[in-house]
């Protein structure tokens, strides 16, 4: 009996209960969604203040980096921090006059999203699909490695057929790109409907949300797959280069020249990937708005950039910086909620031992930040669509949303930029 009791106790001690972690994720996720909705309301009322704060935040962080270098008495950290601070200062000075116009773009994009919150639900579904696909892909890759009998990174590369690796990485990146771009195209379609026919885009799951999703997954799906394939090919080559670099470092057989060439190739591919993704972001907006094919949409993007590259890039950057900062704020709020939960229900986190407070904060932060990032990615796509429509159809905006239109063009005139089109009425 004593042996049986001991065995029973052993089984009980080895049972790990993650129920508390599950409850934490649910509670922090709920707070993250509520905080995101609250911040959306704040951004609607004070968009210019949010963007200005994000600009000062970047300056402040670079200055703190300088102070850290002085405190640690590391000259290279001080010099790097000074370089970052000066570059941020020059950037802030150059774009400061443009912040009011970018803030109105943000306000217009938020207005469109609030009228069609169903697109945020679509974004969460797309993220869930991406996570599911990544899990299935990872299981498949592990199976391939096990069949080939590899035990570490280098032997996996040596023993696995390169064709399998290329196919696996291409399938991963291509599918993820398609899911992401279907989301972008759907959002653009919804914002376009709100811009041209607001009566069809004025509720949570409006007709615009349904129709835009259907168009993105049927009529425009071929264009989305083509544009996504171009990015996926670059990302696949980049990943293979990284794997070769890792294998050479593990075996220490590569000469310095090879290492330098691989590093340069990795850097070049990363730049090409970033440029192509940025180009695709606006190409798929045109696909969602007008149903263009990929190449025709690309021509429209080039025309847009030739005419308004400064306005497009600066507005996109200012808005994205502010959305990134607000996502971090939501993450910090959720992390603090996690700490409160750990204090109230410490038994939920016994599995983490002495690290329970750290894990509670990190889990809360990650959940809140992830949910906020998904929500604000919808806002970012809607703002980019607004930027495109400002150049393509200003008269329709004036007709259907006169108050927002008057406010937007008033700030445009204050920025000192040339008029977008003769059809725009400046109030």
TrEMBL record:
<dbReference type="GO" id="GO:0022857">
    <property type="term" value="F:transmembrane transporter activity"/>
</dbReference>
<feature type="transmembrane region" description="Helical">
    <location>
        <begin position="278"/>
        <end position="297"/>
    </location>
</feature>
<keyword id="KW-0472">Membrane</keyword>
<dbReference type="InterPro" id="IPR007603">
    <property type="entry name" value="Choline_transptr-like"/>
</dbReference>
<keyword id="KW-0812">Transmembrane</keyword>
<comment type="function">
    <text>Choline transporter.</text>
</comment>
<feature type="transmembrane region" description="Helical">
    <location>
        <begin position="216"/>
        <end position="234"/>
    </location>
</feature>
<protein>
    <recommendedName>
        <fullName>Choline transporter-like protein</fullName>
    </recommendedName>
</protein>
<feature type="transmembrane region" description="Helical">
    <location>
        <begin position="50"/>
        <end position="68"/>
    </location>
</feature>
<feature type="transmembrane region" description="Helical">
    <location>
        <begin position="119"/>
        <end position="142"/>
    </location>
</feature>
<feature type="transmembrane region" description="Helical">
    <location>
        <begin position="318"/>
        <end position="341"/>
    </location>
</feature>
<feature type="transmembrane region" description="Helical">
    <location>
        <begin position="357"/>
        <end position="379"/>
    </location>
</feature>
<comment type="similarity">
    <text>Belongs to the CTL (choline transporter-like) family.</text>
</comment>
<feature type="transmembrane region" description="Helical">
    <location>
        <begin position="163"/>
        <end position="196"/>
    </location>
</feature>
<feature type="transmembrane region" description="Helical">
    <location>
        <begin position="21"/>
        <end position="44"/>
    </location>
</feature>
<keyword id="KW-1133">Transmembrane helix</keyword>
<feature type="transmembrane region" description="Helical">
    <location>
        <begin position="75"/>
        <end position="99"/>
    </location>
</feature>
<dbReference type="Pfam" id="PF04515">
    <property type="entry name" value="Choline_transpo"/>
</dbReference>
<dbReference type="GO" id="GO:0005886">
    <property type="term" value="C:plasma membrane"/>
</dbReference>
